[in-house]
């Protein structure tokens, strides 16, 4: 087993609590490392695990876990956990994993899961969609797509994500979330291979700002369990491309202060002083196209 056998890795740093009296990682923690990597693997598939399994009508249960030790990890080591779906059976799947410090293999492992009915825990065939997603990911296929369109086409799915994030998670009143501009705005929605909407944003009709044709991006939202997976960037880049194509000279947005660094990485620059919007601190940001 070598590092180049994997194209998915989860990185972590060994914590003090994971080291035993021999000052090396306690053997049982390596299984936890593999399990943590599996959770991140589902995220790489753009798959909110609990919601996706509910949609599929089943769940995965560990049948067998094996670990083979070659060398020890120590406190503060940075480890890369490689993971791949190596085999798919009728109702089972097998993950092979390797824990590396640089290019050195420390621990190898295999996790075998059985897909089963959650109520009876009796095995059932792997759904074709899940099978296709797993094989597609291992083949390097894209796990998401972005659709851009009007409210009539995308409003239902965009609204689902926005309601989950802004109303349920952030506590914004529904009366403040929906407005007449949705009907005239251009909307972007990211979907996974299960056709689940994961992230959204909108681009308002162009208007003049300091004498220049300007677009305004807003209502940017991504499902909490998949944040950090690049979905917001996909939405943002799709809307920026549409703004540039229609001739906008610049794009404005009101960023929540907690998200300002995200927009700064995309080339947006802070304008003016912070302000309150729907009870949340915001800052205006601008990007020239």
Draw up the topology in text.
Layout: E1 8-13, H1 29-44, H2 49-56, E2 59-69, E3 78-88, E4 92-101, E5 104-116, H3 128-138, E6 144-149, H4 151-169, H5 174-177, E7 186-192, E8 197-203, E9 207-209, E10 212-222, H6 231-245, E11 250-256, H7 260-265, E12 269-277, E13 280-288
Parallel strand pairs: 10-11
Antiparallel strand pairs: 1-3, 2-5, 3-4, 4-5, 6-7, 7-8, 8-10, 9-10, 11-13, 12-13
Annotation field: number of helices: 7
Helix content: 25-40%
- Rg on CA atoms, Å: 22 Å
Total strands: 13
Give the terminus-to-terminus CA distance: 47 Å
The CATH topology name of the largest domain reads Aminopeptidase
Shape call: globular
Count of separate structural domains? 2
CATH class of the largest domain equals Alpha Beta
What's the story with the biggest beta sheet? 8 strands, mixed
**Would you list the SSEs in sequence order as H and E?**
EHHEEEEHEHHEEEEHEHEE
Low-confidence stretches: none
Main structural class = alpha+beta
Beta-strand percentage range: 35-45%
Under CATH, the homologous superfamily of the largest domain reads Gcn5-related N-acetyltransferase (GNAT)
Mean pLDDT: 95
Reported CATH architecture of the largest domain: 3-Layer(aba) Sandwich
